[in-house]
Amino acid sequence: MIQIQQSAVDSSLFGPSSLSKSQEKIFEALLKSPKTYVYQNKHQLLFEIILRDRIIHSAAALAKSKARFAIFRFSKCNEQFWVRNELGGFQLRKEVLPADAINDIFVNSHLYAFECATAIVIVFYKAVLDVIDRQTFNTLFSNLLLYDWHVDQDLGIKTKKGEDYLPGDCLYFKNPEFDPQTPQWQGENTIYLGDGLHYGHGIGVTTTEGIIAALNRRRKKFATKSAYLVPQTTRVDFAYLSKFASNLEHYRLPMNNEYLITGTLGSATFLYW
């Protein structure tokens, strides 16, 4: 359910063809949610729909990229843009603009390797960069560090309990009996793409059951407890970030004619544009 101030919103809020197909799905998911989502104005709601859409597309782009999964010890980055610190995190070089460094991960993806939490953060940053002004992005995130869940406070990431899973959310799958020799598989952070599909760095794009099956293959011997989806959501602060987006008309239709299409063949899931 959606409310703008005290008034309930229905499907007629946006005119015909004013949203892309993927944006319409997000709007419908918000409308059908048992939870009430409250916005100060139409701009806030539209911003969240558009940013969620860009989160999905950024996750799909990372899934199609050559960026590899690696634990912190073996992480890699393009050192023209980042300094790899002793913990395996990536610190932005002082002479580099944040927008250029985030975009490079997608342009020169073959130079990067990181684990799943860092992948989620990268997706969030890229999506925000796609929606707000580049100069504003550089100002807000001037001292970027990509390391696990260490994020700039302006991203406003928060985790809340609940099963109101929406496209563009980060979800977490816990693996209670993971193999202690591979602790990186004690769980998997994913971006929920909608339609029952997730992107998990190191696993790829697959269904809820596919993520659970992948984690179950990485349990200790004689394990009996299955991996499971934790009832929680992790999101950026959509309302706060909406203050930095002045004109959203450009983003109401897919950028560069991008349409995210999914298909399956056996147990594999494919992404197309």
From TrEMBL:
<keyword id="KW-0808">Transferase</keyword>
<dbReference type="InterPro" id="IPR020916">
    <property type="entry name" value="Gln_gamma-glutamylTfrase_bac"/>
</dbReference>
<dbReference type="Pfam" id="PF20085">
    <property type="entry name" value="TGL"/>
</dbReference>
<dbReference type="GO" id="GO:0030435">
    <property type="term" value="P:sporulation resulting in formation of a cellular spore"/>
</dbReference>
<protein>
    <submittedName>
        <fullName>Protein-glutamine gamma-glutamyltransferase</fullName>
    </submittedName>
</protein>
<dbReference type="GO" id="GO:0003810">
    <property type="term" value="F:protein-glutamine gamma-glutamyltransferase activity"/>
</dbReference>
<keyword id="KW-0749">Sporulation</keyword>
